[in-house]
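tokens incoming
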């Protein structure tokens, strides 16, 4: 006789550094800056920050004091545009499904 116990899988939640809302990783962007202060958007493990895919949160990202202090040199206009392009790419991918 088989045991009918269902296994509940743990779903990790992460917090957006701007709005402080906890969401699953599917609804957040993860990025980090490498030792050369270059922006990398990644789904890998390791130290990084999470950000909502919302334009409102992306725009507010530049006003966070602790973030600016840590990554001020890397937060250029190109960095901002790269984040926006990646968010647009993800939205287009989800709309095409």
């Amino acid at each position: 006789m088989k045991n009918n116990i269902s296994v509940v899988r743990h779903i990790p939640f992460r917090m957006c550094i701007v709005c402080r809302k906890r969401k699953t990783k599917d609804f957040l962007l993860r990025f980090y800056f490498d030792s050369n202060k270059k922006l990398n958007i990644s789904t890998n493990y390791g130290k990084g920050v999470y950000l909502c895919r919302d334009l409102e949160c992306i725009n507010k990202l530049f006003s966070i004091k602790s973030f600016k202090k840590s990554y001020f040199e890397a937060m250029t206009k190109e960095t901002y545009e790269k984040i926006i392009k990646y968010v647009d790419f993800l939205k287009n991918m989800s709309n095409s499904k």
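note: Residues 21 and 41 are 20 Å apart (CA to CA).
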